[in-house]
């Protein structure tokens, strides 16, 4: 009988490489909203970078004691499931409901590529983000909602008129921002009201 | 005389917003290398997300005691100067030399948009990355060099044959990986040798 060579470290590295290669696909998932210069639609990888940066920039607008480094990590992984499940348009309730099951299956597959301990750790970050029960998750979600409102405000309404979104619907998203960060929520509300006043968002 | 109303908190938030808007431009800076599926060239914002993720995935390949959260933060900001200075092709020595001054000017302007304390903090992260004197910076640089080698290896050489890059030049970059992470350096060297064996990289 031949001796079986077990190289667990090699296996770990190979699993990590497979995951690193797989997540490259997030660069091809296209979101509804546009870049702030209006030149093209945004992809989910660059969006994830942007909101990770926002966690560093707006950190002082999180509640005291918020672990901002955890927020950054959460935001980097928060949309990985879109590789399989695609981007969900947050103003379409049917799409939002159908998405949950698809995202769980995506999480099983994608985080499952990693060594068990790492897959568990990243999946927990994603689940924490989705559950919005910790200050970190609520702040991360606030930034995730803040970014497209800022972009739409700066691009004459951006996706709002395009998808016939109304101010009352955007204000529901602003409430999520307020729950994660009162000061960013107040700022977002002003942007929404200004967009309405300028005729870029229907009342 | 009218009373001057000073609202320093408002000023801080406005500066943070201006920076958040400005950095959106990183999504339009196009790098030499392609996505792993070969479909298009990569932009610097999505690259920054990818290497930030790699810091989380390959953390155990950093020297013990490396502050991985600092590595993630460093990688998110490491290429912001490209908004003004553009991407540098690392295999062009003339381009690399001319770039240093342009990047310093870019850092002055871009980090200068932030409130002073935050601009200083982020600029220090960038300078630490560039200087490669800390384990965090050496590991961050290793990941920044590892990503395109992995992508090129997986795309029949990718930018290597396109820009007539030779194995000896790639091996100089592998040395930077080894300095930040011996195990990732060893892996990258195997990828390079495999690419040579397959005829995707000239000796």
From TrEMBL, chains A, B:
Its cofactor is Co(2+); Mn(2+). It comes from Nonomuraea aridisoli. Residues 40-158 form the HD/PDEase domain. Its EC number is 3.1.3.89. This is 5'-deoxynucleotidase. Keywords: Hydrolase, Metal-binding. It comes from the Bacteria. InterPro entries: HD/PDEase_dom, HD_domain, YfbR/HDDC2.
């Amino acid at each position: 009988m031949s001796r079986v060579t077990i190289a667990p470290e090699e296996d770990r590295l190979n699993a990590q490489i497979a995951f690193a290669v797989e997540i490259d696909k997030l660069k091809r998932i296209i979101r509804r909203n546009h870049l702030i210069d209006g030149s093209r639609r945004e992809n989910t990888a660059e969006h994830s970078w942007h909101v990770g940066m926002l966690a560093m920039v707006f950190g002082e607008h999180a509640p005291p004691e918020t672990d901002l480094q955890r927020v950054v990590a959460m935001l980097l992984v928060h949309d990985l499931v879109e590789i399989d499940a695609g981007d969900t348009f947050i103003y379409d309730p049917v799409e939002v409901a159908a998405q949950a099951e698809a995202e769980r299956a995506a999480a099983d597959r994608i985080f499952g590529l990693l060594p068990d301990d790492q897959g568990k750790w990243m999946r927990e970050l994603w689940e924490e983000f989705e559950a919005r029960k910790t200050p970190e998750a609520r702040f991360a979600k606030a930034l995730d909602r803040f970014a497209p409102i800022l972009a739409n405000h700066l691009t004459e309404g951006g996706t709002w008129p395009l998808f016939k979104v109304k101010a009352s619907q955007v204000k529901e998203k602003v409430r999520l921002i307020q729950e994660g960060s009162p000061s960013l929520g107040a700022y977002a509300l002003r942007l929404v009201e200004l967009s309405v006043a300028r005729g870029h968002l229907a009342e």
